[in-house]
């Protein structure tokens, strides 16, 4: 089964479906990521602050999968924003992952209270020039933060990774991204299990009609919206379920009925406030 790829604005491509490891315990990371790689995932989304890069790296090394068949993302945490601190954080992440370079390095949050995201972005431009990351992007950036990067620096982010699920679709940010060639990555694609998305009758009725699960319907909605997704699960059977999205298609009406569920229902932090 071949996962479709999304073309990035720097000429590189990214698998549209991957595996996320937020809240994967460090001691469990190697086992869980190994199972994800066995399932077929070739795109792993981690972050320095998840404290599981070492386990991710061990799973990658043990898998024997050629490096050029894997897409690995990690992120610069808020406390490491700056120039030298960003260089040091990248180096540490690479050491923990056991890699010479990642495919994608993101500024994790804009952290506007620090007002260092433009400086940090220039550091990421340098890290890309040095070959420590292939592509660079941002996460949790809202329109004013993106506008500043576009006005004050030379590189348009390849992606913006934002909280995005049927209850919180961020139409302004995704439209801005589409206009400027910034691909949208949807974090918390299943709403992190924090509201009963997978039990909503609108979703379960669509699932029943296709003989698929509610989670598969929500993930399929993301793919058809053009989002890049990397659902997380500690459980092998759910890894398999979340990877099995390519033998059905939502109709335009089904897609629209899920899009109509928007209610600005954020489950994570507010990007304007997170420090
Ligand atoms: P998700 O929306 O992927 O939801 C994960 C939750 O859903 C877990 O509790 C999991 O439980 C459960 N789940 C997974 N699959 C199924 C299924 N098929 N049926 C029922 N329940 C299921 O949330 P995440 O926050 O993990 O988001 C995905 C990834 O996005 C993260 O892992 C991380 O890589 C990234 N992320 C980025 C952020 C950022 O600020 N940039 C913030 C948050 C996440 P169980 O494990 O028990 O199966």
List keywords for this structure.
single chain, 275 residues, alpha/beta, TIM Barrel, eight-stranded parallel β-sheet, two-stranded antiparallel ribbon, 10 helices, 10 strands, globular, binds NADPH dihydro-nicotinamide-adenine-dinucleotide phosphate
Word description of this protein:
- The protein is of the alpha/beta class and 275 residues long.
- It has one domain: TIM Barrel (Alpha-Beta Barrel).
- The protein contains ten helices and ten strands.
- The strands form two sheets. It has an eight-stranded parallel β-sheet.
- The protein is globular, with a radius of gyration of 18 Å.
- The mean pLDDT is 97.
- Bound molecules: NADPH dihydro-nicotinamide-adenine-dinucleotide phosphate.
- NADPH dihydro-nicotinamide-adenine-dinucleotide phosphate binds next to helix 9.
Succession of helices and strands: EEEHEHEHEHEHEHEHHEHH
Radius of gyration: 18 Å
Specify the CATH class. Answer: Alpha Beta
Distance between the termini: 41 Å
Shape type: globular
Low-confidence stretches: none
Q: Can you list the ligands bound to this structure? A: NADPH dihydro-nicotinamide-adenine-dinucleotide phosphate
Could you give the count of β-strands? 10
> What is the CATH superfamily classification?
NADP-dependent oxidoreductase domain
Short description:
The chain is of the alpha/beta class and 275 residues long.
Strand and helix map with partners:
Layout: E1 5-7, E2 13-15, E3 19-20, H1 26-39, E4 43-45, H2 53-63, E5 71-76, H3 84-97, E6 102-107, H4 117-129, E7 133-139, H5 143-152, E8 159-163, H6 171-180, E9 183-187, H7 201-210, H8 214-225, E10 228-229, H9 236-243, H10 252-259
Parallel strand pairs: 3-4, 4-5, 5-6, 6-7, 7-8, 8-9, 9-10
Antiparallel strand pairs: 1-2
Helix pairs in contact: 1-2, 1-9, 2-3, 3-4, 7-8
């Amino acid at each position: 089964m071949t996962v479709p790829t999304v073309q990035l604005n720097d000429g590189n491509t990214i698998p549209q479906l991957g595996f996320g490891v937020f809240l994967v315990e460090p001691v469990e990371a190697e086992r869980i990521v190994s199972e994800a790689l066995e399932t077929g995932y070739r795109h792993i989304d981690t972050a320095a602050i998840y404290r599981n890069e070492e386990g991710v790296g061990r799973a990658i090394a043990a898998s024997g999968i050629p490096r050029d068949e894997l897409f690995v993302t990690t992120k610069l945490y808020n406390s490491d924003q700056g120039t030298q601190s960003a260089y040091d954080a990248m180096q540490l992440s690479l050491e923990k992952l056991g890699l010479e370079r990642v495919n994608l390095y993101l500024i994790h949050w804009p952290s506007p209270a620090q007002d260092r995201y433009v400086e940090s972005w220039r550091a990421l431009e340098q890290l890309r020039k040095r070959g420590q990351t292939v592509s660079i992007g941002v996460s949790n950036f809202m329109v004013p933060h993106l506008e500043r990067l576009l006005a004050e620096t030379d590189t348009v982010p390849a992606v913006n990774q934002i909280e995005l699920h049927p209850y919180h679709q961020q139409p302004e940010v995704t439209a801005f991204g589409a206009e400027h060639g910034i691909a949208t990555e949807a974090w918390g694609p299943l709403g992190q299990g924090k509201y009963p998305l997978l039990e909503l009758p609108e979703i379960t009725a669509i699932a029943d009609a296709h003989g698929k699960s509610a989670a598969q319907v929500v993930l399929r909605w993301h793919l058809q919206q053009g989002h890049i997704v990397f659902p997380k699960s500690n459980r092998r059977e759910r890894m398999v379920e979340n990877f099995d999205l390519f033998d059905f298609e939502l109709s335009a009406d089904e897609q629209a009925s899920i899009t109509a569920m928007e209610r600005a229902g954020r489950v994570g932090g507010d990007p304007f406030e997170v420090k």
